[in-house]
Amino acid sequence: MTSNRRPATPDSDRTSVPQRVEDAGDLVRLVRRVWEDKAIGLISGHYAHNTPVHLPDAELYGREALVARTLRTLATFPDVRLHSDEVIAGSDAEGLHTSHRLTVSGHHLGHALYGAPTGRRVHWRSITQRRVQGGRVVEEWSVHNELAVVRQLGLDEWAVARAHVQADAEAGTRPLDAGVGEVVRGTGQDAPPNPTDSAPRLPDALPGWIAAVVWNARRLDLAHACYAPDATVRVPGYRRLTGPEGLARYVLEWLAAFPDGAMHVEHVSSAEHGRGVLVAARWTFLGTHTGAGLYGPPTGRRVRIAGISHYDVVAGRIRREDMVWNELALLRQLCVPSTP
Question: Has the keyword Isomerase been applied to this entry (predicted)?
């Protein structure tokens, strides 16, 4: 994949959104115009009419569904501001792929989400990936740490999760299918692979190796093979982990709650920068909540967690990882709607 890293676009350039999306800079300008300037109608001109949008707890079909969701969010946080932290972009036979990491802030001034306005200022991290063909966005994946928003608003996170589940049940909205039966970590009945203690040399191969070896083969002792001793790993909840040991403790927390859990990497792209390579990986975690720990007593419910990670790889080692996924979407999967 031919890759490049585009810096955040200056404010002075954001009004000049071309008719066709040709590169990552065009998308950065488009996003700022839609969200900060409320030019929401630009979505219709820059997204294909049947664009699928993949969210942690919903599948949207078509640009009109995306417009409706954007309107709800902007009605809740009308003064939203975006800080473009990082864009990783590259092209292949399927088109232009971009992975855009943002910090978003705004005040809770509307009723559309989270109840009566509190006036509180909140901020959250998000990563959105887009695939562009023929000058238009034809597919999108987006994750953000929604639980951070709920906590900053002073709301009870489990009450919010239960209310969302109940509202969906009453509206007849079916939750995303997390599957049934055994969670597959290897191939068929085979044991997980027996890894060596050497991580792959190519940065693009690191996310798959981490998923297969550290997570699925439960070789937490081998995290040192790909993470620098002083690596920073930022995860939801505004937690900052340090080095392979910090990552290993985080994986242990997850696997204690979801003992059959498996991590699957779905797409990887990369871009060279001055001292190394930036890597973006989209992944899915499947597991059954049969262990106590992070999310309370076991519920026995199967969960599906969609996330995206950005890695900064220098000299073959990960120096920084930014992992974003939606914890509130996980809580919703652990709740059961009440029956009349």
Answer: yes
Regarding the domain delimited by 2-144, which CATH topology (the fold level of the hierarchy) does it fall under? Answer: Nuclear Transport Factor 2; Chain: A, (3.10.450)
Q: Between these two residues, 125 and 293, which has the higher pLDDT value?
A: 125
Burial 55-72 (b: 16+ CB within 10 A, else e): bbbeebeebeebbeebee
**Could you give the dihedral angle defined by the CA atoms of residues 248, 254, 204 and 132, in that order, rounded to the nearest 10 degrees?**
-150
The Cα angle at residue 234 between residues 231 and 237, in degrees rounded to 5: 150
Spell out the residues 6+ positions from residue 18 whose beta carbon is closer than 8 angstroms to its own: 26
Would you call 315 helix, strand, or coil by DSSP?
coil
Q: pLDDT per residue over 209-220, tens digit each?
A: 999 999 999 999
Integer-rounded Cα radius of gyration of the chain = 20
Distances (CA, A) of 335 to 107, 175, 331: 28, 11, 7
Say if residues 142 and 55 touch (Cβ distance below 8 Å): yes
Q: Give the pTM.
A: 0.90
